[in-house]
Each structure stands twice: as C-alpha cells, then as structure tokens.
Amino acid sequence: MSTETMLSFEKDCSECPIRHRAVCARCETDELELLESMKFYRHFKAGSTVLWSGDEMPFVASVVAGIATLSQTMEDGRRQMVGLLLPSDFLGRPGRAIAPYDVTATTDLTICCFKKKPFEELIVSTPHISQRLLEMTLDELDAAREWMLLLGRKTAREKIASLIAIIARRDAALNRHDHRNAFTFDLPMTREAMADYLGLTLETVSRQVSALKKDGVIELSGKRHITIPDFDRLMDETGDDADGGPLV
Amino acid sequence: MSTETMLSFEKDCSECPIRHRAVCARCETDELELLESMKFYRHFKAGSTVLWSGDEMPFVASVVAGIATLSQTMEDGRRQMVGLLLPSDFLGRPGRAIAPYDVTATTDLTICCFKKKPFEELIVSTPHISQRLLEMTLDELDAAREWMLLLGRKTAREKIASLIAIIARRDAALNRHDHRNAFTFDLPMTREAMADYLGLTLETVSRQVSALKKDGVIELSGKRHITIPDFDRLMDETGDDADGGPLV
DNA sequence: TGGCTTCCTTGATCCATGTCAAAGAATTGA
DNA sequence: TCAATTCTTTGACATGGATCAAGGAAGCCA
C-alpha cells in the first residue's frame, strides 16, 4: 500500500503541503515533533476503497493529496455521497471504532494517519489540536447544510452549476490564476460520482452538463476538462444569492 | 419576551432538565457556578422567529425546552430546513458574529443564553466545555449526513416514515413507555414544516401521511396525534437498514 | 354564536427527472 | 493493432412529485 520513495514532508511536518490548514495547523514546533513520531502515511489508487462502512477503523487521518468521498448505500443499492474530503480535511472521529460510511479514493490519494488510541489521548492533552478539530468540524457542518439545501430544493441544472462552482472555487484557492474571469480545471470525478453527490442519476448529470455547454455557461474539452468563461454567469445558474461569498 | 416567574433551574444549574446532555454536561460544580453567573434565559412563542439569517448574533445558547429549527431560504422563496434543535442542542458557533440561517421556534421555546464574547473565552479556558461541544458537533454532523441520504435518495413515502420514526424515537427517549410496541405522541410541527424538513411540498406530505394511515402503518387522531401500532412495520417503510440502531 | 384565520386534505393536471435501451468515445492490455 | 472494458452521451418513454385549485376542519376572538 505504501510507496518506496519518501517525500520530504513525510519526514518533516514543516514541509507538509497541508501544514497550515489541517488538524495540526495550530501546533507549535514541539507538538509537531510529537506528531512526527506518531504519524504514518498510506496511499490509495484512484477508484480504490479506503474503508467499507462497518469496518473497524484503526486510525484517523488527514487527507494530504487527492480526494476521498464518504458515501452511504441503501439496501437496494441507492447511494448518496455525504462527504467530500479535500486536502487538509480530516477523516474519522475520536471515540468511534467502526466506520459509518464507505470511504473511497476518487483520485490517487495520500493520507497522514494516526492510530486511534494515541490520537485520542493527544486530543485531551493538546488543546491546539482539539480546538482546531472543533473549528474544522463546524466548517464541515456548515458545508453539509449548504449541501442539504442543494439536495432538497435545487433543480438538476442548479445542482450541476453549484457543483462546478464549488470545484472551481477550490481549484482557484489552490492554484492562483492570472485572469480574474477565466477558470480552467479538470473535474476530479466521474459522472456517476457527480450523480451520487447531487442526488441525481448519471444520465441526468450528463444531460445537464451538455445543456450548460450548449448554453455557453461552460466549455468542455474531453469529458472532464472545463473552462468557465464567465464566473458570474455560472453563479447565476446555481440559484444561490449573488453574494455567495468571495471567490477565495 | 421573558416571563415573570423564575423556575428553579433558572437559579440552579443542577436542577436543569438538560444538565447531563447539554454543552455543560461535563462541567464540575465550580464550573457550573461560573456558568450560573453568566447565563440568562429567553422565551419564544410557537411560530416566532428567534433570529433572521444575516442578523447580528450576540449570544450562543442551549435549547432547554421546546423545538427550534434552522432553515435557509432561496431568493425565489424555496426553503429548506437544515437543522432541528431539540432540548440540550446548541445554537450558535463560537467565532461567528452573523447568523447564517433563520432560526424559528416551532413550539414554545426556552433557551439558556451566554453572551458570545465571554463564552468564547470560556471555551479556551474550560476544556470540559470545548470537548463536549466537539462531541455534540460531531453528532450533529452525523445527523446531517443521515438527512442528506434522506433528501437525496429517499421517496416521499420513505421520507415521511423516516421523520415519524425520528420523532417517535426522540419521544421514547424522553418519556419511557410501558408497552414495547405502541407509541403515541404529537407531531411537533405543521405539514409545511415537515415539507421544509423533507424537501417536499406540503401537499405531498399530506397525501403521504394519509397513505400511511390508510395502509395502517400509523393511526391518526386529529391532525397531529399519532399512534404507531407496530414500530418494525414503520421501520420497514423508512428504507433504512433493519438495524438502524436500538430505540433509545 | 358567527365569521376570521390558519392549517389541512383532496382532485386534476403537468413536467422534471428517472428508467430502459443503444451506441459512441476513450482507455487498457494483449 | 485490435479487442475488451469503462465511461459517457443520447433517445424514447414512464412516473413520482409539483403545481394549481377548491373546499373542509379547527381554533380564536368579537
């Protein structure tokens, strides 16, 4: 599961790309040293399963690179994604032994793991960690509530536009763009994963993506590569208030 | 807004009905004394608005009695409930000045408030509070994810059955019943509020409630009073796994 | 008592999205 | 280079839930 080569941050937390956003963001040098002695990395290929719902969960982890999803499946196969974990997001819950959701690597994925037991002790003894975890959990709850509005009340077209806007924003936050109004990026997920995210079928996703393309809201090259000629135009299609927050 | 009479718990936290489940659950006697000196109560009538989205939010609070809801409204009036606050649940977020959702009293409501600033200081200095808040926030996130599955993938009939099961469970947790298989309680919300919760229209809610009644899954007297003759039968209608957790 | 007002129910119809089916692109591996 | 596989698109049709419309029931207060 693990690669042979060791990247610089795998020794040294201060080199880590998510150093300032992850659960360890507030840690001081001495606290980082403690984390360094406990952490271990795991890598997953795109499409592979990290954990099945019901599995024992021996670790908690931060996403370092790539994207993971949390999803629930009903007995008859209906499936809903309930979490999208981007770099710096936290996986797992202190005090929980069993995974409540399927965890899947949507792209190639690297996670920084801590054994559950020692991490739980750390939370009690290191307020910098528990405070940061609280903040991140509150952010996730806000995101979940946005998502509930999307699932309960938006049309298929608005759902697609919203998802594209979310991904564009995240991409803009990572890679600074020169142009203010032209965004280009790859969708990091299949049509089926988009459908699972949005509570739609993959056919409806495909049709609505085509419709947004036909109407000039997005430009497509290949199936995954998207250009947004006018971000405000895309925002109009999401159904959200005009002032849905600044772009970064 | 506030009543003239003071109930015993309004002086003495140890008398408080939510003492062992709220954000203060883990506090020791001396910590409770500190909270007692800071807290104040507010009361709202059923149907009244506690806060509008965008309002300044000068306090955080625990729900002591009654039910409050969080909801989002789109520009054209589409509305989705995104939180259901029952007694002991926490309202507000440390570090947030502006309410991001409409907060409504669904029933008569009593909340135990703390001014935001002093509470934020308390969180830093009192690990018993921040740890409990983390735990409660993680629970809310789990509930939000269940709800996302409901919104994204369940049929109207499954949604109604799920909501009734949730309320029945909560009611059973508060009021011990003698019979193992007969539950009776009042729906604490209008058909419209149910629709906002479930991502449906009120007409569909009404029709599906009638259908469940016709099929003998529930018994209705009046519009709000429900009896569940066979809880397992109801659970079959929710679409959830058979082992959706024990009843309390 | 009667007339508002609010909440709820039911019917008729429509339409957005799901379902079923087929075939086109892109990718992988032999 | 050619299957085989996976992902995607598109078409035809079905349907669950929304919409529009009317009226019933319960609570309230004058």
Would you write up a description of this structure?
- Chain A has 248 residues and is of the alpha+beta class.
- Chain A folds into two domains: 8-147, Sandwich (Jelly Rolls), CATH 2.60.120; 154-238, Orthogonal Bundle (Arc Repressor Mutant, subunit A), CATH 1.10.10.10.
- The first copy, chain A, has eight helices and eleven strands.
- In chain A, the strands form three sheets. The first copy, chain A, has a four-stranded antiparallel sheet with strand order 1-8-3-6. A four-stranded antiparallel sheet of chain A has the order 2-7-4-5, covered by helices on one side.
- The mean pLDDT of chain A is 90.
- Chains A and B meet through strand 5 and helix 4 of A and strand 5 and helix 4 of B.
- The structure holds a DNA duplex (30 and 30 nucleotides).
Fold topology:
The structure is a homodimer of 248-residue chains.
Chain A: H1 8-11, H2 29-38, E1 40-44, E2 49-51, E3 59-65, E4 68-73, E5 79-85, E6 90-91, E7 102-105, E8 109-115, H3 116-125, H4 127-153, H5 156-174, E9 183-186, H6 191-198, H7 202-214, E10 219-221, E11 225-228, H8 231-238
Antiparallel strand pairs in A: 1-8, 2-7, 3-6, 3-8, 4-5, 4-7, 9-11, 10-11
Helix pairs in contact in A: 3-4, 5-7, 5-8, 6-7
Chain B binds a DNA duplex (30 and 30 nucleotides) through helix 7.
